[in-house]
Specification:
By secondary structure, the chain is α+β, with helices and mostly antiparallel strands. Helix content is 46%, strand content 14%. Strands 1, 2, 3, 4, 5, 6, 7, 8, 9, 10, 11, 12 and 13 form a 13-stranded mixed beta sheet that branches. Helix 4 runs parallel beside helix 9. The radius of gyration is 30 Å and the shape is globular.
């Protein structure tokens, strides 16, 4: 027999107290410890750089925080602050090596607190953080990211820039003790000299300020050198690439199930990695960019095997603490992703698909396209639409050379909806449409070739537009000419449907211009039109609409709303619109900048001149 007494509860511990003794949730520990270490780093840098910080109330708080022990020199404090910043980032990303470093450093910090200042509070805080790390060590299992020795160069550039910026702050942190009025040139020179341990041109009254500045700059230089040397000589683990065996397996899956998704063939980009389902009947291809594990399109293969491939994808993301995301999946793909993973989906835009049997140049709706095509043909242009396997080696060399020379940017753009190569022997089923015109006195190395469009297979009876490039000197309207030529030649090639460009936010643009649109929708449309001055948003929608396509929605899949800015930035990096490499100076002087319109680009960012030419066409 059981009994329940609802009487005196004084012997029970309140839930709030139990929660305190139980501690934070395990999944929140990496963020909590990482934030604490970030605060310590900020206080350490401030203590080393700003003299007034030594006498502030905030300094009293810093005195009891582990890691901010009273330094023998400001240089030690600054170095400690920078290292703690690096450690904090690794802790937040659940990196195992960051956990090991923290477990080693916290006891050292606690011992220093007790030995040098007899600070029991500092020891307690250090022990508390150490206990959290030891108790929840299972939360820190993320493996190191794939890396190469290029990371050393990137570290040297970024650390040098950061050291110069922080060095300028250090040089100017003692304005009352600077002898004379040194200009910016002298300040930069003093920083550069100080980073390599040489006395600079600026002098300070009183030896203490001169000593602090000199040793602080030297410590920053040493930190930059040591981290670069470590990255340069540590074991190299190159970023994953699509192997020949992986590519062969993907081609087998595409031969059986490639008709399901128009973006399936883009999984064969060789700068992607792949995970397969346990049965090998499905796969997800991806690339890791800035800590984001970025997949594109739907999984490849049998729909019933998709959950297994998606599970492997999520396990890989968790193992490395990467942020999972999917760009440009279909509605079916979005439903499977959200059902299997608990992720969320957001409509990104629409893909323009033309059914060949319904396409015709007749009718009032096609008047503008029809007139433009006829005008260009009267100017002497001819077209050819062939599979890659039908071109001679000489023709392929011309096409490859022209595609490279007519590229509008130094960086190859495209990722989720681009193949990244033209005329590869393995891509014999791809289709190339070319425009030609013979001109007297033409010295072009590409002969009479004036424009190129490249299509990839979409199953056995479809094709998907991959890129559009043309000679800058060709007449406007080359894109319309070649699309019409490709659609007219499609039946002879066994093609029944053609996927054209991807239009970002098409539904908002279309609904926002209709009668009865609400103020919020109109405001959103006006913002998109304004951004179209720099990004190809409205112009791509209007260009696609010329061919009277049907629109298929595409989605982005993400974990939380706060991940969207990071995913968007990673996607722009992958697509080639944001590059962190050093700029190529005076590139425009080496060769003229051709017009390029990138097909299938979810985050389009083409110069405004291209937009105007597309609209004028």
């Amino acid at each position: 027999m059981s009994s329940r007494i609802d009487g005196d509860k004084s012997g029970q511990v309140p839930s709030g107290v139990r929660r305190i003794f139980r501690g934070p949730r395990p999944e929140s520990v990496p963020g909590l410890v990482g934030t604490a270490v970030t605060i310590v780093g900020l206080l350490d840098v401030a203590a080393g750089v700003f003299p007034r910080f030594q006498h502030s109330r905030l300094r009293a708080v810093a005195e009891v925080i582990p890691g901010s022990t009273r330094p023998m020199a400001a240089a030690v404090t600054i170095c400690a602050g920078v290292l703690l910043f690096l450690l904090a980032h690794g802790l937040k990303r659940r990196k195992r090596r960051a956990w090991r470093a923290a477990v080693f450093l916290l006891p050292v910090g606690a011992a220093a607190q007790f030995v040098y200042r007899h600070s029991y509070i500092g020891v307690v805080i250090a022990v508390a953080l150490l206990a959290l790390l030891l108790r929840h060590q299972g939360e820190f299992k993320a493996l190191p990211d794939p890396r190469s020795r290029w990371k050393a160069l990137a570290n040297f550039v970024l650390m040098s820039a950061g050291s110069i910026g922080l060095g300028l702050v250090i040089v100017n942190a003692h304005p009352n003790k600077v002898v004379g009025r040194p200009g910016l040139y002298e300040q930069i020179a003093h920083v550069l000299y100080g980073l390599v341990g040489i006395e600079g041109p600026i002098a300070y009254s009183g030896g203490r300020a001169d000593w602090i500045v000199g040793y602080s700059l030297g410590a920053l230089g040493m930190l930059t050198a040591l981290t670069t040397i470590y990255l340069a000589f540590r074991p190299e683990h190159p970023a994953a690439r699509l192997t020949a065996d992986d590519e062969a397996k993907l081609r087998e899956l595409l031969a059986k199930h490639g008709a399901r998704d128009s973006l399936g063939h883009f999984a064969l980009r060789r700068d992607k990695a792949v995970v397969f389902s346990p049965s090998g009947k499905a796969a997800v291809t991806y690339r890791v960019v800035s800590g984001v594990m970025l997949a594109s399109g739907d999984p490849i293969g049998d729909v019933e095997a998709w959950p297994g491939a998606i599970e492997r994808f999520m396990e890989e993301a968790k193992a490395h603490s990467w942020t999972p995301a999917v760009m440009g999946c279909s509605e079916t793909g979005g439903e499977v992703w959200t059902r299997e993973t608990g992720l969320d989906a957001l409509e990104l835009g629409d893909e323009a698909i033309v059914d060949v049997k319904d396409f015709s140049l007749t009718g009032r709706a096609m008047r503008n396209v029809r007139q433009m095509v006829k005008r260009i043909e009267r100017n002497g242009y001819t077209t050819k639409v062939r599979r890659v396997s039908e071109l001679t080696e000489e023709e392929l060399e011309q096409v490859r050379g022209a595609a490279e020379a007519w590229r509008g940017t130094d960086t190859e753009r495209g990722f989720s909806m681009a193949l990244g190569r033209v005329g590869d022997p393995e891509d014999g089923d791809c289709i190339i449409a070319t425009a030609h015109r013979t001109e007297e006195g033409d010295t072009s190395p590409y002969g009479d070739l004036k424009a190129i469009q490249h299509f990839v297979p979409w199953g056995k009876d479809g094709m998907s537009l991959e890129l559009m490039r043309r000679d800058r000197g060709a007449d406007p309207g080359m894109n319309e000419l070649l699309i019409v030529a490709s659609l007219e030649a499609a039946p002879g090639l066994g093609i029944e449907h053609v996927s054209l460009n991807f239009a970002m936010f098409r539904s908002a643009l279309a609904r926002g211009e209709k009668i009865g649109a609400g103020p919020v929708l109109r405001m959103w449309r006006n913002l998109l039109v304004f951004l179209s001055r720099w990004f190809q948003i409205e112009s791509l929608y209007k260009f696609n609409a010329k061919f009277r396509p049907r629109w298929e929605p595409r989605f982005v899949v993400f974990r939380t709303t706060r991940d969207l800015p990071r995913i968007g930035f990673a996607a722009m990096q992958a697509e080639g619109f944001v590059t962190l490499a050093l700029p190529r100076l005076f590139a425009a002087r080496r060769r003229p900048k051709p017009v390029r319109t990138c097909a299938h680009t979810p985050l389009s960012a083409v110069p405004a001149q291209t937009d105007r030419e597309v609209q004028a066409a």
